[in-house]
Structure formats: structure tokens, C-alpha cells
Design brief:
Radius of gyration: 20 Å
Number of domains: 1
Shape: globular
Largest sheet: 6 strands, mixed
């Protein structure tokens, strides 16, 4: 085998590895997006146990102004108590590949309830098994807007 053939074989090998890597990344992104999409559909259908099942066993839900809710059962109970009658309306989604096979998904949208609508940001971290490791929920409202939401 001459030098030119070995060089071409090496280039082909690296090109194949790069293509496989890109395909794997695309699959990870698609799986993570599907998980987050299913979470929102189940949340909006008041299927709180099913939405919580999207989390890894020790997953965390980080609501605004409250301590972390940890574990599927605790997340389901929290959603049942706090999210009943609300509709999450995602409007924009940004994804980012993280290390160790994780994906971060930033969703901006609104939460609609009977008495109010508020702009919200959700930052999901989805593990390599397409389970939600963590979601941080942030209200994207001014202080004036938040004062109108007082109970």
C-alpha cells in the first residue's frame, strides 16, 4: 500500500468517525427535545405522575422562590398541588450539547392560569438516557407584574 492510499484511508476513517459523532449528537438532541415536549404535553393534560416520570429518579424541579423538589414522587405531588389548571405555552427553544452526554434545553414561553398569564423560562438539563435531571423555572416578569400575582 503506498503513502497516498494510506493517507486517503486515514482521511476516510476520520470522516466516518466525524459523521458517526454528528449522528449521535443529533440523536441525543432529538431524544432530549422529545422528552421535554412530552413533559409539557403531560403537564398541560394534568398528567402529573406521567410528567414526573420524565425525570431521573433523583431529578430536581427548581421552582421560583422555593426549595428544590427532589425525586419523581415529590415532583408529582408538587405539580398536582401547584400546577393544576395551568397551561404551559412554550414559544421558543434553544438547545446545547453538554459534556457526559447531557443536553441543555432553554424554553421561553408563558404559563396561563385562570387569573393570570406570566412569562416564564424553563432551563432543562436532560441526561444521556433522555431523562430530565433538572429543570429550573424562572419567572420572566417585572416586579410590577409580580405584584399583580399576589394571592
Amino acid at each position: 500500500m503506498n503513502t497516498e492510499t494510506r493517507s486517503t484511508d486515514a482521511i476516510d476513517h476520520f470522516a466516518n468517525q466525524d459523521a458517526e459523532h454528528k449522528a449521535t449528537q443529533a440523536l441525543r438532541l432529538a431524544a432530549a427535545k422529545a422528552t421535554v415536549s412530552a413533559y409539557f404535553k403531560q403537564l398541560n393534560a394534568s398528567e402529573f405522575a406521567a410528567a414526573a416520570a420524565r425525570f431521573q429518579p433523583n431529578g430536581q424541579l427548581l421552582p421560583p422562590f422555593e426549595s428544590a423538589i427532589v425525586g419523581r414522587e415529590a415532583i408529582a405531588a408538587y405539580l398536582k398541588a401547584e400546577a393544576k389548571g395551568m397551561q404551559a405555552v412554550p414559544e421558543s427553544v434553544e438547545t446545547e450539547l453538554l459534556s457526559a452526554g447531557e443536553v441543555q434545553i432553554q424554553v421561553i414561553g408563558q404559563v396561563e392560569a385562570a387569573l393570570f398569564t406570566v412569562n416564564v423560562g424553563w432551563r432543562f438539563r436532560v441526561n444521556s438516557s433522555a431523562e430530565i435531571a433538572c429543570v429550573k423555572i424562572k419567572l420572566l416578569a417585572s416586579l410590577k407584574d409580580l405584584l399583580h400575582l399576589q394571592r
